[in-house]
Amino acid sequence: MIVTALLPQGFPGQPPLPALLADTGGGSQLITAVAPAPGSTTGRLTWWNRWAGRWYEAGSAPARFGAKGLTEGATRVQSTNTTPTGLYGLPYAFGIRRAPAGTEYPYRPVTRDSWWCQDNRSAAYNRWVEPLPAHCAPGEAEHLVTYKTQYAHALVIGFNYAEPVRGRGAGIFLHVNGKGATAGCISVPAGAMREILRWADPDRRPHIAIGTESGTLDITRY
Asked: In this predicted structure, what is the pLDDT of residue 9?
């Protein structure tokens, strides 16, 4: 009997990472965001295309994660500065700046009235609101236009989005790097973010898988 050990990531001959995942969302585009360990604040983000039954790398960039590392998305607690692991859809893109030329993904422009509600008591919890409604406290919402660098361009990550669970967390995005680690989002250099938006094709149903290289948060679980 021949036993084949799992080769280290990136080793010649190993299947591409998406082929090792439990699920890729059913589309033919995928983003993987991988950190070395749960406590890591940096790692690697790669975007992939699936052609003729095989995954091919389309691009890659250094990534930043939450200031407190990564945690299981299904049990995450709001305001813990952790990035949720798991497999998520990407509902739409947005930005303070105009969409990069060639962007086909639904793209929502940020205005002075654009907010993201994070108020657990609000009917608009984990939703874009414009203008800010009375039931969403300003101190429990992000005024998107004030994040000029980070939200120049961004993608909404569908964490806790379809049926929001109060206290789980809100406003998790893939966006442009700020000064350091994030509050729970994933960030990449500005050029990479523009490239991702030009690459993303809504007809190919891209998803994002977030996890670690090994251990309990191993990305291949998702």
From this structure: 45
Could you tell me if 131 and 113 are in contact, meaning their C-beta atoms sit under 8 angstroms apart? yes
* pLDDT per residue as tens digits for the range 150-166: 999 999 999 999 999 99
Q: What does DSSP assign to residue 182?
A: B
Q: Which of 144, 120, 119 is closest to 130 using CA atoms?
A: 144
Residues in the chain where the model's pLDDT stays below 70: 1-12
Nearest CA among 18, 64, 14 for reference residue 43: 64
How big is the CA angle at 13 (ends 9 and 19), to the nearest 5 degrees?
65
List helix spans (H) across the chain. 17-20, 190-199
* pTM of the predicted model as reported, rounded to 2 decimal places: 0.93
Q: Which residues contact 166 (CB under 8 A, 6 or more apart)?
A: 120, 125
Using CA of residue 148, residue 208, residue 128, residue 140, what is the dihedral sign? Answer: negative
**Residue found under tokens 């998305």:** 73
Query: What pLDDT shows up at residue 12?
Result: 59
Any long-range contacts for 114-122 (C-beta under 8 Å, 24+ apart)?
A: 114/143, 114/144, 114/145, 115/141, 115/142, 115/143, 115/144, 116/141, 116/142, 116/144, 116/170, 116/171, 117/141, 117/170, 118/78, 118/142, 118/170, 118/171, 120/78, 120/166, 120/167
pLDDT of residue 98: 98
- For the chain, what is the total number of helices (H) and then of strands (E)? 2, 14
Contact in structure between 46 and 17 (CB atoms under 8 Å) = yes
> Residue 60: beta bridge partners?
46
